[in-house]
Amino acid sequence: MSGRLVVIGTGPGKPAQTTPEARAAIAAASDFFGYGPYLDRLELNDGQTRHASDNREELARAKAALTMAAQGRHVAVVSGGDAGVFAMAAAVCEAIEHGPEDWRALDLEIVPGLTAMLAVAARVGAPLGHDFCAISLSDNLKPWELIETRLAAVAGAGFVIALYNPISRARPWQLGRAFELLSGILPASTPVVFGRAAGRPDERMAIVPLNEARGEMADMATCVIIGSPETRLIERPGKSPLVYAPRSATGAAR
Amino acid sequence: MSGRLVVIGTGPGKPAQTTPEARAAIAAASDFFGYGPYLDRLELNDGQTRHASDNREELARAKAALTMAAQGRHVAVVSGGDAGVFAMAAAVCEAIEHGPEDWRALDLEIVPGLTAMLAVAARVGAPLGHDFCAISLSDNLKPWELIETRLAAVAGAGFVIALYNPISRARPWQLGRAFELLSGILPASTPVVFGRAAGRPDERMAIVPLNEARGEMADMATCVIIGSPETRLIERPGKSPLVYAPRSATGAAR
């Protein structure tokens, strides 16, 4: 079997933040699987074929890509951000584990990319400068109770929290509920960053204290970063403030 | 004041993983501050000046860079990986907060980069495919007890854990102690990834079950990823196994 599968993270959407490695992997592949809007960002040539699918078809998409790779094609599965963070690399691994034996023999490469929280953090200072975690707020594939347990555990232990998939049409109330829960644990003044489309023309960054944070401030393209009790905000004359997590931590603010 | 400061993450060390944005920021700056080995990776021209310093001089280095930027120079502070993850962006923000007022007026830009855990994860599958956290194991700037509290909180709540700064000559026992603590919470078979120098010529990846993980398996260039109870390992004929966190989570394995 000479087929191969490469899972590519293209970064947050600013072309200069796509690595040369990802760019080369895109140039080399023949068939592209991914969510339509991510595929639309690629500049493909006539010999390269798009197989776009809906956002929520991850496992089916992974299987289709593996099937085509097993037929000898050079297949790329494309994610925005990093392929390994709440994205297609896990779906491909899951499909391999439960799929036909020969998928395990396929040549598989994963090309990492800049994930959204890093791009957002860079736009506002260094909110991920100390211990932090990343949580998907989607309860499509895990119970909401587990998400609440995790939020409480990390907020109580002083982690900065980056929320992926904060809101969608089908999940309108979860982010508001998360802020409510966190307000019972963290100071009202804890900085919350709403980082939308970092580095893209439609970028929008907002920083509000936790007691003013509302679910409606985010959309599907937003990564939300919630500070720890030790997170600092620096006002600057004529510039947007800086938010950062100090390199030292006492845990005393808990 | 016409000076400017740019804090640049150059990625894990594989040249093709440095973003074009970071490359352009390097080309544009006149003076470079950073840990010697990171500066050594840059290809500077005759008009560009290196100001190398030791690994543990972060705040002093940030102040020196800000002082020079305030004098009108175009200064770059360089980190390996991402500048915002256990790196120089937080030190620069800290220096600005506590420094002279005019540092707040400086033109400051932070250029994100691929952080080590993403590059390591891509080499072994998708171990960060679901909720995860990043913890610095260094107790230079926080009490060891706080690190133990955090490890227990996230392991108990089912997060995958990426450990930065796992070991050094001055901190020889902490990683072994962390494995011991986690062994009381997580299954003995939990996959542990030792990802050293991902993408560089001296790369070394190892995957062992938690009950076989030892501190000596890591060095300063290693990022350690410890699975959750739901993390899966896929054996492959003639290839290294894949490790991944399933996209769905029940929390039941806790």
From TrEMBL, chains A, B:
Entry-linked SUPFAM superfamilies: Tetrapyrrole methylase
Presence of keyword Cytoplasm: no
Record-level GO BP terms: cobalamin biosynthetic process; methylation
Keyword terms, alphabetized: Cobalamin biosynthesis, Methyltransferase, S-adenosyl-L-methionine, Transferase
CDD domains: Precorrin_3B_C17_MT (cd11646)
Pathway: Cofactor biosynthesis; adenosylcobalamin biosynthesis
InterPro entries attached to this UniProt entry: 4pyrrol_Mease, 4pyrrol_Methylase_sf, 4pyrrole_Mease_sub1, 4pyrrole_Mease_sub2, Cbl_synth_CobJ/CibH_dom, Precorrin_MeTrfase
Domain of life: Bacteria
All residue ranges annotated as the Tetrapyrrole methylase domain in the record: 4-213
Recorded GO MF terms: methyltransferase activity
Protein name as catalogued: Precorrin-3 methyltransferase
Organism classification: Bacteria, Pseudomonadati, Pseudomonadota, Alphaproteobacteria, Hyphomicrobiales
